[in-house]
Amino acid sequence: xxxxxxxxxxxxxxxxxxxxxxxxxxxxxxxxxxxxxxxxxxxxxxxxxxxxxxxxxxxxxxxxxxxxxxxxxxxxxxxxxxxxxxxxxxxxxxxxxxxxxxxxxxxxxxxxxxxxxxxxxxxxxxxxxxxxxxxxxxxxxxxxxxxxxxxxxxxxxxxxxxxxxxxxxxxxxxxxxxxxxxxxxxxxxxxxxxxxxxxxxxxxxxxxxxxxxxxxxxxxxxxxxxxxxxxxxxxxxxxxxxxxxxxxxxxxxxxxxxxxxxxxxxxxxxxxxxxxxxxxxxxxxxxxxxxxxxxxxxxxxxxxxxxxxxxxxxxxxxxxxxxxxxxxxxxxxxxxxxxxxxxxxxxxxxxxxxxxxxxxxxxxxxxxxxxxxxxxxxxxxxxxxxxxxxxxxxxxxxxxxxxxxxxxxxxxxxxxxxxxxxxxxxxxxxxxxxxxxxxxxxxxxxxxxxxxxxxxxxxxxxxxxxxxxxxxxxxxxxxxxxxxxxxxxxxxxxxxxxxxxxxxxxxxxxxxxxxxxxxxxxxxxxxxxxxxxxxxxxxxxxxxxxxxxxxxxxxxxxxxxxxxxxxxxxxxxxxxxxxxxxxxxx
Amino acid sequence: xxxxxxxxxxxxxxxxxxxxxxxxxxxxxxxxxxxxxxxxxxxxxxxxxxxxxxxxxxxxxxxxxxxxxxxxxxxxxxxxxx
Lengths: 586, 82
Fold this sequence. Notes:
Number of strands of chain A: 3
Radius of gyration of chain A: 39 Å
Strand content of chain A: under 5%
Oligomer: heterodimer
Largest sheet of chain A: 2 strands, antiparallel
Order of helices and strands of chain B: HHE
Shape of chain A: elongated
Structural class of chain A: mainly alpha
Shape of chain B: flat
Number of domains of chain B: 1
Number of strands of chain B: 1
Strand order of the largest sheet of chain A: 1-2
């Protein structure tokens, strides 16, 4: 028997215990669960364990190799930081949901077969929806429902794909799949919905910013990265992913530039960052896959950090729109510095974490000769610096002074952000730590003169462009409002559908009914009257005539029927006389 | 020790920061042109000194120009979906 326990079990047990503890014991539990889960991962033996047979299928609860472990480690780290950050939420519903959400993501990552994967995939969807609903506003209610509808559709695709795939191959083992046949296409579709590949990305930017402050931090880390994991396992080297990924890096940055909600800006930048990972998986070489996976690892750290700093600002000011913020560096210097560390990491500044992973994907694109993709990735790199690296710190903490004199957030929030910022710098300065976790041996050196100078040029001259545009008033000012995206299709087009069925369809039906009443029924009545006349004048008269004939005939005959015996006897005798004389004389 | 970022409000600080920034820009391009050897490259663009500088500037300007057009098309009132 192997050592350790199935990774998902620790989180689910933790979730069960939450309601029974209070105060410090509860806080302790929330922090200990991810730590225990992390230690448990170190004990897991490589290969498959906790295999059960269910209805003739094998369920594998732990498929342990470097790929799944890498995601397992970062999921535990992010859970620890997230729980520390969320200690002031004091909301059992959220704590339980978060633990179930993290647990199901880890369950999906270690799932060795399709059925187990599907089970945790769906659990993750429902946990995430509940976490969005925890936002407790009307907008959160709607956003959670949108989220659920999109992901339940994705879940059906996954289930249908699994059924077709396993019935064709006879195996439920989850491993390399490749795009081959309708089953794999459906599974692929389910995966890219969760990875938020445009145009299937709007569920993310629509729903994540509506959750609670801590809820959004958790949502940032798991659903999309689990999708990156399953894509890396099942579809590495699939060409279409290169182009989907490259498109994914570029598309959201335009929206991020004009978006006013700080958390939604970061949601768009999530789509952009996952784009780098999807591209790397599509290229599929050892360098590219290492880049994709290490970037997923780093993205969880710096995106959680950025989401936390913006959340902290929201916590102390109650504001989330860039138009309402600004000048906070005066009273929140620590949060400001932590945000800048996150911004430098996501922008891939040398010495920060993003640099050592994103550059691998870009280098892999160059190595593979994908020049157009390479240009798109560089464009997106400049763009992410622009919106997440400059815009977020600038409009939230600097820019115009909004007159808010908010204090720093509580200590637990600062510690959580500090922990992530420390990891960002640690990985940026000592990338070997991260590289040793990757599935393939790493023969890549990020800190060459050409890389460092090239990246710094890209960033500083992007910064120059930003300054130039701001100073000359060409930069689009932050504005209150929302921007249409593909969620319009199910938020507005659905209204259009209701209008369509309400107006033209129902109106046509009413018109037809009226037309029938005025034309159809009148003709019917006229025809019925005709029939009636025919019935009265022809059929009834004929019947009556026949009856009259019979009545008069019987009246005539009745004369013969006197009822007196002597008359009948006389008729009999006369008759006998007539018959007899006829017989005798003729 | 208490962390404060109020030093950026010092008189003349913005000018000095701007000068420092321009200095960095110049140094980056100069170092690239004079010292950096572009080995292990796969695309021709990787070998042009200062390519990233020009591309970064152009990309960001283009990004903003396109984003402004996008805003004209896509921006709606906050209550649009209600």
